[in-house]
Amino acid sequence: MEPKIKEVTDKKSWEDFLLNQENSPFLQSWNSGDQFEAIGDNVFRLGVFDGGNLVGVALVMKVEAKRGTFLYLPYGPVLDWKREEYFKALIDYLKILAKEENAIFVRVSPFLKNTEKNQELFTANGFRPAPIHMLAEVLWLLDLSPSEEELMMKMDKQTRYLIRRAEKEGVKIIKSRKLEDVEKFLELHQETVKRHSFTPYPDKYFKEQFRNFVCDDQALMLLAEYQGETLATAMIMYYGDQGSYHHGASTHKFPKIPASYLLQWEAIKEAKQRGKKIYSFWGIASDEELEKNPKHPFKGITLFKKRFGGYRYDLLHCQDLRLSKKYFVNWGIETLRRVKRGF
To answer: Is 169 buried (19+), middle (13-18) or exposed (0-12) by CB count in 10 A?
Structure first.
């Protein structure tokens, strides 16, 4: 029997399937779909069914950009990649959906290890590497199976010192589920944007993400406070077997107070206490990128994350399925953008 693709309308069946997979990225969760719908995106929750059983899910967004409309799967789909017929059935459906939605290509950021075999799977099904990445593709992960004492010892000596110093200086970490604390994050985020000159998500993106995930106890806002000031904030997502440092922001007030180090340590301990197996620091710049560009804008945050111990995990690069000649306009614009920013 050939696999069938149908829209899924039941949150419980979606979440039960996703949370039982080896990899269950929160960007493919039901709440993530609700978040994107709340900020005005069209979302399609597609299920792959085999004999009536749900065997794969794909949260698909319709992205309407000036350079062309496309369908996008953030860290999806989630399915058994050994069953290529599941992937083929989904691709066939996405082609039809793209035509109905006037999309000129389908873009996939798969949560798959970067291997030659995985790239061949996409190439064989008509995909090509995208000119840019959409999400982090070089991750820095921390195994949470050791004890807290062992995790501390795996950090570099300076990091341990800075965590203890922040505690001695009186930095307090607040773990908040309050929506109003997103405003404190946004204040620091605006300062961080000015400092590093990058294009931010709109404020509503952060507000809706926190609102939709915190209702299922899948998010916390951590705030590092010192002498009545908020020095650093982090939105941590707790989903599946991971805790993820998804967004962070800080101020340069009190530059000698290492608040961000204590903030991360508390986030790591919270993930461990929740029974998570992995703490994800999210994306870093690869050694190859840093060697090529010593002034890489992510150099500082990469060195910061690595100080806590952990290991690098490379995901397959973003993949595009061209459905129209208009795709090459998008390809040209994005290629120029990548060359201009240098990564």
So the answer is: middle
Where are the alpha helices (H) located in the chain, listed in sequence order?
11-18, 30-38, 84-100, 116-124, 148-154, 157-169, 181-196, 203-214, 259-273, 287-292, 299-306, 327-341
Same-domain status, 97 and 228: no
- Report the domain count for the chain: 2
Tell whether 101 and 179 lie within a shared domain. Answer: no
Question: 241: domain range?
Answer: 138-314
CATH number at residue 130: 3.40.630.30
Half-sphere exposure of residue 295: CA atoms within 13 angstroms, side-chain side:
3
Contact 56, 77 (CB under 8 A): yes
Q: Is the bond preceding residue 77 a cis peptide, omega within 30 degrees?
A: yes
Same domain, 73 and 158: no
Average pLDDT for consecutive 10-residue bins of the chain (343 residues)?
95 98 97 97 98 97 93 98 97 98 98 98 97 96 98 97 98 97 94 73 94 98 96 98 96 94 98 98 94 89 97 98 94 85 71
Closest CA to 23 of 57, 71, 50, 46: 57
Whether pTM exceeds 0.85: yes
**Are residue 156 and residue 291 in the same domain, yes or no?**
yes
